[in-house]
Write a structure and sequence with these properties.
The complex is a heterodimer of chains A (147) and B (412). Chain A contains three helices and five strands. Chain A is an alpha+beta fold. Chain A has a single domain, classed as Roll (Thiol Ester Dehydrase, Chain A). In chain A, strands 1-3-4-5-2 form a five-stranded antiparallel beta sheet, covered by helices on one side. Chain B folds into two domains: 236 residues, TIM Barrel (Alpha-Beta Barrel), CATH 3.20.20.140; 115 residues, Thiol Ester Dehydrase, Chain A. Chain B is elongated. Classes of the chains: A alpha+beta (147), B alpha+beta (412). The interface between A and B is large, with 64 and 68 residues.
């Protein structure tokens, strides 16, 4: 894994896309890790709840956005804050692009913090998830997150 | 209107008339964050002179942004986005007198009465995102609503789809409305997508109201503001990031998710803390979770590689705890439909304090932070915010989580 350093990051930098298109099998594999049921299990179950087809759990979709950031930040980066707003349904088969944009960089309490907007966009150009995040990156010549 | 770049007249300013900060319940941006971002846009050759904070269902009389506005050399004005029986209205020039006449938190204010009162108190109202379903003027007009009193619409809205903005264009053409543009930004990097061009410098909200009243406004896309700075090259640098349409800011109403920790309204008094139990995080659990998400990050998937990494062990991907919560927390809600209640997860905020390693034992406590009720078209809505604190086996906080959810009580 490559390692980005704080000094090399600037507002306006784009991260992504991480593109995912979860299949029914992948959705079910995630759901098996949870106690979720209903609309996450099949089209039929979803339709009984008034939905057109099987949907992804919010916890799965937000995890993809986190994956974008944890992959980008490298082994010495640390995701310190994540705020996500769930705005629209994500259905199985949707093509999902995960993006982030650096909005600010600050050194706070001795930590080099990158502030980001992050969002997931579907094939219709809609953003079912949008939020913000903060990632602590190493400074050149210094060690990792120190935990 | 969008089109080829042209040289704007001296004195032309571009304001984003529709911006939400964290004071709105569905926005994640600070005012200072917006102002810093406008600095980034300016560095790329765009002209953005100011923003108007139009928070949902409220107006902030107290906060004075003049110092931060001066520091970033960006005009910051305040307005409100209210919800009426003609859809959402952006109100500029809000006064304490107007606030005494109407409860801005209402979901169904009487538009004609509001419009009259806004005029009488020296303000101006604009129909927001008129092409949107349910909350836009177009649909109300098709239903035969009286739209007298509306003179200006937000023709270009950054949160609307191209189809919704096309309806707004049609509405403007058919009815001869004057038009403005606004990003409807809820996040920093969305601001400025659409703006309003005004022919003169603006320093106070009264001057904005005057320009709106005189129809001296026009909607523009961010790219068009390059013309005023002598850089008509268009798509380069930061501007290219605005490649896509941001979401509908009111999209939360379309989300129907049935997960979450919501319980029957009133079951837990606000502030009561409940023990959610403990859970030992295993390497197998981490790897299974990571694989289910298609992860290849060795910190989550390869015990040997992770051992040589900065944490000396496999660590949990950030949101593994969401699956843990279901195993130790309250029972999931029953399926939706057929009456009863359904739950909508609207937001999640997480502060990660330390990594969670394989072998850690987490304990969780949960507390209801706030709960309130609203009545909307979908019936009675119960909003709740619950905080969950996760500690490790050494009793150190590793995560602080806030889950916001909405429970809808279906009409019976």
């Amino acid at each position: 894994m490559s390692q980005p350093y704080f000094e090399a990051v600037a507002p306006g930098d784009e991260i992504g896309p991480l593109i995912v298109q979860p299949t029914r099998e992948e959705v079910l594999a995630f759901i098996r890790l949870t106690r979720l049921s209903g609309a996450f299990l099949s089209d039929e179950a979803a339709q009984r709840e008034g939905l057109p087809r099987m949907i992804l759990a919010s916890w799965q979709t937000s995890a993809y956005l986190a994956q974008l950031l944890t992959t980008w930040m490298g082994p010495q980066g640390f995701l310190s804050r994540f705020e996500i707003f769930f705005r629209r349904l994500v259905e199985t088969g949707d093509r999902l692009e995960c993006w982030a944009i650096v909005t600010d960089t600050v050194v706070r309490d001795g930590r080099a913090v990158v502030m980001l907007d992050t969002f997931m966009q579907n094939q219709h150009g809609e953003r079912p998830l949008q939020g913000t995040a903060e990632v602590v990156l190493p400074l050149r010549g210094q060690g990792g997150p120190g935990f | 209107m969008q089109g080829s770049p042209q040289a704007w007249e001296m004195g032309t300013v571009f304001l984003d008339l529709h911006v939400h900060s964290r004071r709105s319940d569905d926005a994640g941006a600070t005012v200072e964050g917006y102002l810093k971002w406008i600095g980034v846009l300016r560095q790329d050759g765009y002209q953005v002179d100011g923003i108007v904070l139009t928070e949902h269902r409220g107006f902030d009389l107290e906060t004075d942004y003049s110092a931060v506005a001066a520091r970033y050399e960006v005009l910051v004005l305040k307005g409100s986005e209210i919800e009426t029986d003609l859809g959402h209205l952006l109100v500029y020039g809000v006064t304490s007198k107007l606030l005494k006449q109407f409860d801005f938190s209402s979901l169904n204010l009487p538009a004609q009465e509001v419009l009259k009162a806004v005029r009488e108190t020296g303000g101006y109202a604009v129909a927001a995102h008129p092409g949107r379903r349910r909350i836009g003027l177009w649909e109300h007009l098709q239903g035969g609503a009286d739209i007298a009193g509306i003179r200006t619409i937000e023709m270009l809205n950054g949160g609307s789809s191209p189809q919704e903005n096309a309806l707004a264009v049609r509405l403007a053409q058919e009815r001869g409305f004057s038009c403005v543009g606004g990003s409807d930004a809820h996040f920093v990097s969305s601001t400025g997508k659409y703006l309003t061009r005004l022919p003169m410098r603006i320093a106070r909200v009264e001057e904005l109201v005057e320009a709106l009243s005189l129809g001296q406004v026009a909607p523009v896309a961010l790219e068009e503001t390059r013309a005023s700075t002598g850089d008509p090259q268009g798509d380069r640098g930061k501007g290219s990031k605005q490649r896509t349409s941001p979401p509908s800011p009111s999209g939360a109403s379309t989300l129907i998710d049935i997960i979450g920790d919501a319980r029957a309204p009133g079951q837990n008094p606000v502030g009561s803390e409940t023990d959610q139990g403990t859970h030992r995080v295993t390497a197998e659990e981490i790897v299974a979770y990571a694989r289910a998400l298609g992860e290849s990050n060795p910190l989550f998937t390869d015990a040997e590689a992770a051992k040589a990494g900065p944490y000396g062990a496999l660590i949990a991907p950030p949101f593994l705890f969401n699956t843990i919560a279901f195993q130790t927390g309250p029972e999931p809600l029953p399926p939706t439909g057929g009456g009863g209640t359904s739950s909508l997860v609207s937001a999640q905020r997480v502060e990660f304090l330390e990594p969670v390693r394989a072998g850690d034992t987490l304990s969780a406590t949960s507390r209801l932070l706030s709960e309130y009720t609203k009545t909307g078209r979908a019936g009675r809505l119960v909003f709740s915010v619950r905080q969950i604190i996760y500690r490790n086996q050494e009793n150190r906080k590793v995560m602080v989580v806030e889950n916001s959810s909405v429970q809808r009580q279906m009409p019976r």
